[in-house]
Specification:
Elements lengths: L1 E7 L3 H13 L3 E4 L2 E5 L2 H14 L6 E7 L1 H5 L15 H7 L1
Antiparallel strand pairs: 1-3, 1-4, 2-3
Length: 96
C-alpha cells in the first residue's frame, strides 16, 4: 500500500536518521521531510518501530498515512507540490 511519511524532527542527527530509515525502507523523498512509497503492513510496522527508537516523543512528530492507489489518484498537487530535484522517477510516474 502506498504510504506517506511526514515528520517534524527537532534535532538534525535524529532527522537524518529518520530520513535514512525511510530510504532504507525503499520509500522516496518528495520534499525534505516527506516520503512516499509502497510498503506492506510488515514493512510499515518495522519502519514505525525504527522511528520509535529514534525520536523524542515530547519534541518530535512523525505522521504515517497508508493510502490505497485509488485514493492516491484523487490527490491534487498544487503549485510546487514536490521538489523535482529530490523526487525519484518511480514517484514521478505516480504523481504526474
Amino acid at each position: 500500500m502506498l504510504t506517506w511519511v511526514m515528520y517534524d524532527i527537532k534535532k538534525d542527527r535524529t532527522r537524518n536518521k529518520v530520513a535514512k530509515l525511510c530510504e532504507e525502507a525503499g520509500i522516496y523523498r518528495v520534499q525534505y521531510s516527506v516520503f512516499v512509497g509502497d510498503l506492506n503492513n510488515a514493512q510499515r510496522k518495522e519502519l514505525i518501530a525504527g522511528f520509535v527508537e529514534l525520536i523524542n516523543k515530547d519534541d518530535d512528530s512523525i505522521y504515517i498515512f497508508p493510502m490505497c492507489t485509488d485514493d492516491f489518484k484523487k490527490c491534487k498537487l498544487l503549485g510546487q507540490a514536490f521538489d523535482k530535484d529530490l523526487i525519484a522517477d518511480e514517484v514521478k510516474a505516480l504523481l504526474l
